[in-house]
Predict the 3D structure of the following.
Amino acid sequence: MRRETPQRLADYGPLFFPAMMLVVFFVVPFATMIAVSFFQRQQGGFYVPAFELSNYQRFISLFFANVLGFSLMLAIAVAICCVVLAIPFTYLLTRMARKVQIIWLVALLSVLSLSEVIIGFAWSTLFSRTAGITNLLVMAGLMSEAKALLPSFGAVLTGMVYQAFPYTVLVLYPALVRLDPTLTEAARTLGASPIKAFFTVVVPALRNTITATLIMVFIFALGSYLLPQLLGRPQHWTLSVLITDQAIYQSNMPFAAAMAVFLVLVTLGLVALTVMAGRKGEAA
Amino acid sequence: MTDFLKHNIGRRAVLGAGLAGVSMLAMPSILRAQDKSLKVGVYGGYFKDSFDKNIFPEFTKATGIAIEAVAEPTGEAWLVQLEQAAKAGQAPADVSMMSQVSMLKGQATDLWAPLDVSKIKNASNLIDRFVNKYPDGRIAGIGAVSWYITLVTNTDVYKEAPTSWGAFWDPANVDKLGLLALVSNSFLLEVTAKTFFGGTNALDTEEGIEKAFTKLAEVKPNVRLWYRDEAQFEQALKSGEIPMGQYYHDVTGLAAADGNPVRSTFPKEGGIQDSGCWALSRASQKVEEAHIFIDYMSQPSIQAVLSRKVGTSPTVKRELTDLTDAEFAAVSSDIEPIIPRYDLYQTKSDWLNQKWTELIVG
């Protein structure tokens, strides 16, 4: 089939529907949010249209800087953990028999069907003192008494990595399947150990995929607000938790919107930096 | 051609309107039925289900007024909807059950139609604090239901019931408490003021509130969970994972009745009593019916039914009801309660929220 450049307006027809959806479900809500972030909060009421910067002013403080910093740090940690775990896992998976691969992929997909609430409650039971995994260690004689592993940063990180891991594998899987096996074979015949071949050939060949995966998991993790509440202490609450508090419990839409806009801007900035750094690396 | 089209549409519209008008006149029963009905807003879920089942059918039987129950969302979303509708002269519900903070916020915009107590004979049964008044004395709302938040413990871990909210501050209870996560639903500032500073009047000034915050900060090392989700704490309390905290008195009683090792204690400083009011939107045309409804709901016998079936504490004086000691104890207590300082959550809400978040997150 020959592809022609669109000549008439009608040729753009198929684009109208997705474009309209994008406008209705993304551009309009996002623009509304930006507008509301400048509105005036009425304490003890709701809000009135206005143009003022006080919502942003309130956000610019050491307290919120710390919360924002923690949220970004948590999302980066989740992204790195997921990618570090998923690359070897997916690499080994692609080397397995077709049937085994299918079973693994179905199992991973079924994790995606679990809601954040179920994942949160399941991990909070697993990490509890009364019914958690430490009881097994006590039975095995490895620990003297059962203890609670939550609330803690480790518990939050575990829950979020568990939630994001299937996505990571699914994004990495096509790239790793398509990776030419002769590349590693060549490395092996030239005398590299399997581990050395993996790090000097497979990982560099996947650099762009890895960057893209890191960004995807990072953004996915940044929006999480339930797991930090269920598994962490208040100092592990992300900015999303505070946004929810303002929007739902304080009816302070303008401030919630300002925080959300700020979060989006910082995220876009970080993603842009990552992409630019990747380009530079390629050019060198 | 265009003329013909216009004409045609106009004729159809006239015909349509005429037909609608004739059918309305032909069926006056619809109009009459509409006169004898009332739209009542109740919190969706458990409350609405219980009211639909136990209260509204009896009311209709007794008065001939049909009730259309409207499920209202919790939080302040309903207040906002009522306000905006009232500005347009509409009332999505005539009478609504409103939280105390929402009552105050509605007062600020004159949203609530003043109630005429001479038409509500049973209002004299109410405990005084359940009559919600405008600053100038007009009556904005009448207490609908109330409930208690108390000191709850796991009986396996605590053999002896604690007697004071002071237990939260006991260094022996490190990492053992589950408390509500928001300043406006945990009411811990009031608890602190009552327990250590002689009463909630200590919160009148900002210095007083700062002092309460400082005292409350001492509780932080003892808190394992700041919860927004009730199921999360309830489950942890039953298993003994988090053996102490604040929770709803009636729900804890039900859990104990099911054989779970939990108990609810009214501390000597009193339980926290929160409540909801019936309030009438100023846009409502059903003023007569609304008064009949509120009067009906304020009867001691109906309040007793609510206590038995819904688990709420009566808003009328105890001696007027026929509740047995056991039935009364299941939902309430004679110990003077801690009444939340709702006015603070209206006038200082952003400041309190900021201080609170910094306290628990920082």
